[in-house]
Amino acid sequence: MNDKCMSIKDLIQEVFRHQDLWDYYSDDLFKIMDLEDSVKCKEFINRFFSVSGKAGCLVDIVEIDDLLKKHPERCQHIVYVFLLGIGIYNKNAKIKKLIDEKVKLYSQKYKCESDVNFIFIWFLCCLFHDLGYIEENSLDLDWEFSYKDIGKCEGVPIMYRYKIKKYLEYRKKECQKVDHGIYAGVSMYKTLCAVRSKQEKECDNNTKLSWEENLIYIYNIASWIVLCHNIWITGNPDKYTEYGLQDLLDKPYPIKLNKSPLFFFFCLIDSIEPIKNIKDFALLRDIDIDISEDSIKISSYITNDLNENYLNSVYGMGDWLTITHRDMNSVFINLNN
Question: H-type helices in 3-159, by residue range?
C-alpha cells in the first residue's frame, strides 16, 4: 500500500486483496469473492450485513435484489466507495490522523467497550448510504421525516440539522425526488437500533459480536453522515434562498476536514468514485489517482463521452466541499479547505 499514484481500478483491487485492511469481522468467505460486476458486489454487501449480524436491516430498508435489478451500478458504487476510501485513508497520513482522533474521541465520549474504529464506522456509512436510492423517484412513498426517528445531530456541522426539512421540500418540489440520503440515514438509524436491541436480548455469550447499548451513539453518528451526504448544491442555486438553503452556498465551505473529518471524507470519496458515471469497472484502469498530504489529483484518459461527465462531477465539488482546479484531463482537489 505504498504507491500513492495508481489507477482507481488498481487501488480498489489492491485494498480488496489486503483483507486485513477492511474485514472488521474476519470472515473467511470473503477470500473467495471478487468484485468485477454488480452481482458480485451485491453478494459482498449481503455477506457483510450477514457476518455483522445486521441482515435484518437490508430487509427493513430495501430488497437488495430490487436495487440490483433497477440500479445495478449502485451495488458496485456502494462497495467501491468502501474500498476506495480505505485505500486513500491508508495513503494519506493527515486524513488518517484526523479521522482516528475523532473516532477515538467518540469511543471515549460514549464509553464504548466495543472496538469502535474507522473501519466499523466506515462500513456502516458506505454499505447503507445508497440503499435508499430505489426510492428516489417514489414521490408517493409512505414516509415522512421526523426528528424523533434519529438522535441528536453529531458528526456533521450543526447547520445541517436545520436544513433537512427544507432540503426535502426543495428536492420534492423542484426536482421531483425523494432525497435518498435522508431516507437512508433515518431508516438506517431506526433499523440498526432495533436490530441491536433484538440481538442483545437473543445472543448467547459465545458470540464474537458486540451489541452493547452505547453503540446506538455510534450508529447515530454514521446515520447523520449518510443522512446529510446529499445535502448540497444541486439543480438551480438561485432557488436555494427561496427555500432557506442559502447557507449551503456560503464560502468558506461549511464542511471542514479538521472539524468533521468523517463527513468530509465520506463526501469526498462518494464524489470521486467513478462507477456511477463510467458504468464499466474495466474502464477504471484509465482513471489515475495521485494522493499527497494536501491534495488529490484525479486524471482520466477514458476515450468516450462519459469521461467529461465524470471529470465535471469531480470538479463540481468546488461548489460545495473544497477548492478544485481543472485542466484538460485532470482535477486537483485541495484538502486544506
Answer: 8-17, 38-51, 55-61, 64-70, 72-91, 93-109, 118-129
Long-range contacts of 26-31 (CB under 8 A, 24+ apart): 27/51
What amino acid occupies position 49? F
Strand ranges of the sheet holding 330-334, from the earlier edge strand across to the other edge:
5-7, 287-291, 295-300, 330-334, 324-326
Which H/E stretch holds residue 193?
helix 180-202
Write the pLDDT tens digit of every residue in 75-107. Answer: 999 999 999 999 999 999 999 999 999 999 999
Radius of gyration, CA atoms only, the chain: 19
Q: pTM to 2 decimals? A: 0.94
Neighbours of 253 (CB within 10 A): 18
- Cα 181 to Cα 61: distance, rounded to the nearest angstrom: 12
Q: What distance in Å separates the CA atoms of residue 327 and residue 329, rounded to the nearest whole number? A: 6
Comparing CA positions, the residue from 33, 28, 41, 135 lying closest to residue 84 is 41
